[in-house]
Input
Amino acid sequence: MRGWRALAARLLPQRLGRRLQLMVSLGLGLTVSLFGAWTIHEQSALALGSIETEAAALARNIALSSENPILTDQLDVIETLLMRAADFPQLLEVRVTDAHGESLGHVVRSVGGTPRVLFDPPGSRIGLPPQTSPLSNHESSGNRVVAWHPIVAGTLLGWVRLERSTEALGAMRQRIWFGTIVAGLIAAASSAALLGWLLRSPVRSIGRSKDFAVGLARIDGQQIDSLEGSVETRELGIALNQASTRLFEQRLAIDAGMATLQRQEAVLADTNEQLSTIFALSPDALLSFDAAGRIRFANEAFFRISGLAVHAVIGQPAAMIDAEFQLRCADPQTYPGLDSFFTAADANKAGPADRHVRPRLTLARPRLQVLEIVGLHSHSPSVSRLLYVRDVTHESEVDRMKSEFLTTAAHELRTPMTTISGCIELLLAREFDAARRQELLGMAHRQSDVMVTIIDQLLDFARIEARRGADFEFEMIPLGDLLQQALGDFAVPAGRLAPELLDTPDSGWVLVDRGKALQVVRNLLSNAYKYSSSGAVQVRLLAKQPGSAGERLGFQVSDHGIGMTPEQLARVCERFYRADASGHVSGTGLGMSIVQEIVTLMGGTLELESLPNQGTTVTVWLPCAPSALQAGSAAQGVIDQHTGEQREADPVV
Output
């Protein structure tokens, strides 16, 4: 003990003031260090708790979203879900397993890297947490947090395992330690200097001052009574009181500042998360450029539209995007340049309020698409310009189809209308004998029938598209009887042979709407006679075949007419499309579209084969009806299920 005291006496300053200075400085440094250590401990605990909570919440969301894909065996949906979840920062690994621990989807990502899918060896399993707990659980080990959550839909379907990195805690601890060291050094230096200048009072005042200075470690704003002695001693008391007050105010200010920063950080993180989600889910592309003209941000929609990779876009100059747009443009010679989109946006702002003309660009790669592009200048110091890209290919195609429809409908309606108008004008202007008058009236009547047929077809298509099968009345009908009825009711054109029903196997029963099915056969027969000037039209029943939804029956309608090229065959079911561009064959181009809509709504499929100048064969497959033993409740159940599926898949618009 005496040896330690002797060593301390040699190391410590001999003067009381210096020794007091040293002791106060050491006390302040130790206090600030302890405060820093306590701050690091509390902040680390809060941050770790937040990370664990976020990991558990994300695991729970993935578990809820995975219930339906697991029940329907849609593993690709699970992989897509995991790839989206892997976009969250600091996420290292996410896995979905079945109830036995066998992997259904596995995505990993290195720190700072991109997510990738891992395919575990077949039959491999991972250890699962106790399955008796209905709630999620998590564990922390090393630099990561592991969260588990069960996937339950009545029974345990599987587990979600998620790993998240906690390396950000180390950086936070370093920042707090650095601030603590700086604050401790500043406090120690200032206190030592102040004490060295003021501590010249009697020993008793120094003792009181010493005790008071030691109490400053609490920094709770306490005050010392007036010290006895010289002016310097009293001033020392005043200075210590002032220092205590300032330290207390600084502590309050620091606490308030830290609370404000935490609130602002939480709000900023929430805002960033919302913006990231909005940008990720937005179907429209968005690019931002920094002050140097380099690409700072691009959302997922831009990579999907442009077909470019992330590393080929982020950090690249605007000239790169300009060159890529020109290279992929359908007509590179007419490409106006990237700056023109910003100029057009400025012109719209300066023009009339009702002027909103947005330039469009047609790209040929990676696929044919029409883009609407708007460029905006920003006054932010970090973002100089914003580029908004919207895919309007569908709208452009709809506009084209509308124009084509109006042209076709106007042409088809004008031809009979001209004939009717001409016949009426002749009857009003001149007197004709009974035979000639009857001929003109018959011509007008036939053309009016043509107009009624065209209008009925347009209304029929609109009604089918709007109702989406809601008005279908499904029943079990022998397919052979259905074809016999359709052929018997069909009005064969003058001078042509009646359609021929070839020898067929024993026909089965189909589950269809009788009226709509007859309409399909009539439309196919009408097309066969329209596009074949001679030769027989043949109808053939096909044998049963297995399908994805059960057995199905089919029939074929064949002609020996003009046929179609592969390009025409690919578009034959498009609305308002007509293979005959000469206009000699009447029609609106809606017949095959109506056939395809009806067959699809009845749960069937349509197949076409055709060769130019050799004819066309149309095959229709329809779902088989239940057996006779199931004709009661089972048939009605199939009908109700089929109707419900069609309504769910194609909601009424």
About this structure: The longest helix spans residues 16-71. The first strand starts at residue 91 and ends at 98. The CA atoms of residues 520 and 534 lie 22 Å apart. The radius of gyration is 42 Å.
